[in-house]
Structures are given as structure tokens and as C-alpha cells.
Amino acid sequence: MTGGVPSESRLRADARRNSRQIRSAAIGAFRGRGLTVPLEEVAKAAGVSKATIFNRFGGRIGLIEAVIEEVVASELFAVIDHARTIDDAGERITYYLTAIRDLQYRQPAFNDVLLQTYPHSQQLMEICRVGSEANEELIAAARTSGALRPEFTADDLHALVVDNALALKHGTRPPRDDYDRRTLYLLDGIRGPSSTSGGR
Q1: Residue 192 near residue 198, CB atoms below 8 Å
Q2: pTM for the complete prediction?
Q3: Along the chain (200 residues), what's the average pLDDT of each consecutive run of 10 residues?
Q4: Which of 44, 62, 64, 132 is 20 to 30 Å from 197 at the Cα level?
């Protein structure tokens, strides 16, 4: 350091620290309250200014894309991957729908993804694409096996999860026991005649 001016290495270290703090604060805020949390609150939790978020990440979309893997994508993709390992079609769709609804209840950010709240985020839209393909694959296999009602489609599943996302985001959050009971009602309503899966 000369003349009281920070060295370049010090500036780089400060920038890295700020980025880590912002990422950590964003992950906590997005997981707790969804992707629409005011950036002022993220900045306050990170101990930086809102301008620093823009300097480091370019704004909300850049910040979302920096953390969406940890906030939503890794858990959703793990659900999809595990569903594909289940041999019985009835058990597979029961696991998948129960896990998706659980993720919706626990992770407000997942509902923002389903609602495509930020369509300019390429990563968010890619998560939607992967999820839609998984829905089509799993619903088609379950219908073919008779585990689902023959008229139930991937579009029906999409409508149900989007309706649930809207209710959780904008309505009164139900107690967990009531929410899980309604998941069972949903599953009972869409099962086909050959389904061997009852309950969760």
C-alpha cells in the first residue's frame, strides 16, 4: 500500500469477499422467501450496498443465476433422477408428485421458477424446460402402465403444480399436516385402475 491507496491485490480480495457474502445472503433469502426478496434486504444481510450487488452480479437476474443451482436446481434434479430409478410406475409417480409438492412447500423459490417469475433468466427457463420434459416422461410412462387415469396428461400436472405455486405464493400458507393430507387426495384422484401404490 502506498499513499493510503489500497493495493490491487487488496481490492481483488475485497471483491471476492463481497461476492461470497452476497451469494450467501442471497441463498438464505431466496430459500426463505423466494426470488422476489428486495435486493436491499440481500445487501443488508451481506453487509454491502445494493450498488455492490449490481457491480458484482449485474442485478437481480445475474444474482439469481449465480445461486439458482444451490437454491433450487440441485434438489429438483435429484428428485427427477431418483424418480427414474423407481421400477414400479405407481410408486414412481407417487414419489415424484409427493416430492414436487414437498419442494413447493419448503422452497418458495421453486414456486417462482414454476411461475417463470423472471423469464429473462436463461438458467431459470432451462430448469423449467428440464422439469417439463421430466413431467412428460413420467406421466407418459405411468399412463401406459395404468398407474394413472388414462385422461390425465402432463399438461394437467403442470396446471396442478402451477395452481399450487400461486396458492402458496399469494394465499394463506396451510399447516403442513393439512397440506400433506391434500397431497394424498390429489394422488388418489389421479391414480389409474392398475395402480398398486396407496398412501405415501
Answers
A1: no
A2: 0.87
A3: 57 80 95 95 95 94 96 96 96 96 97 96 95 95 94 95 96 96 96 63
A4: 132
